[in-house]
Amino acid sequence: MSCFTKASNNRKIENMTSNPTLLHIETATEVCSVALSQGASLLGVEESSDGHSHSKNLLPYIDLLLHKTGLAMEAIDGIVVSIGPGSYTGLRIGTSTAKGIAYSLGKPVITVSTLESIAYGAAAGWTTDGLPAPHYVPMIDARRMEVFAAHYDAQLQQIEAPHPVIVGSDSFSALLNEHRVVFCGNGMPKCKALLTAHPNALFSEQPLSATSLLTPALKKWELRDFADTAYFEPFYLKEYIAAKPVVKGLHPKT
């Protein structure tokens, strides 16, 4: 049995700090982002929105952050990773990197829903101007007019779990009739044109960042809610289907 099971992780950190130094990894979308934090304080962040940069930039970003903050890798108390839904390739890169660091350091892993992270990021940048606090519907872009979405209330408690949605003019009508709703994430533009006329529809363009993992990760740290390092997998929401390769000249013309 692996020494990194959830139970062994729980025993391992009984005497660890309540002010942890955490490494945060976000690779679920086109954004490649890495952050370091100590307790509730952000120490630094390195990120890029180039969708093809994950395999090239992730490890150098981690090294750069450690260099800038003067921290050794051994000073990290835990690794936080955005678990999905999102890009199959991006999630695999983030997950494998988090596992590798966790194994090498013997430290726990905290997984955070990408949609939850998006909601926290949007809420952090939102001002209510005295109006009722809004609910949040984070969205990850999927194929065509589909998004992966979830629903969080004004206190960022999950109301509806991540699920696929085909975006249409009446997709969120019941919710919008009851609450002011902030739509956010890289899937938001798909619904903005359809919903913008509704007075309760609000839109956040806050970009996805590893910094948005900090608050939900600290909550899990306090609860000792760690992933099973050996066995946890990304949350794809839908089964990955690889496109058939096309080789020029292989198929006859029709």
Please, could you describe this protein's structure?
This protein has helices at residues 6-12, 54-69, 88-105, 114-124, 173-178, 188-195, 214-223, and strands at residues 21-26, 32-38, 41-48, 78-82, 109-112, 135-141, 146-152, 158-166, 181-184, 201-203. It has 254 residues and is an alpha/beta fold. Strands 3-2-1-4-5 form a 5-stranded mixed β-sheet, sandwiched between helices. It is globular, with a radius of gyration of 19 Å. The protein starts with 5 loop residues before the first helix and ends in a 31-residue tail after the last helix.
Stretches with pLDDT under 50, minimum 5 residues: 1-11, 240-254
Shape label: globular
**SSE order, as H and E?**
HEEEHEHEHEEEHEHEH
Query: What's the end-to-end separation, in Å?
Result: 56 Å
**Tally of extended strands?**
10
Keywords for this structure?
254 residues, 5-stranded mixed sheet, 7 helices, 24% strand, globular, disordered N terminus
How would you summarize what this structure contains?
Helix content is 30%, strand content 24%.
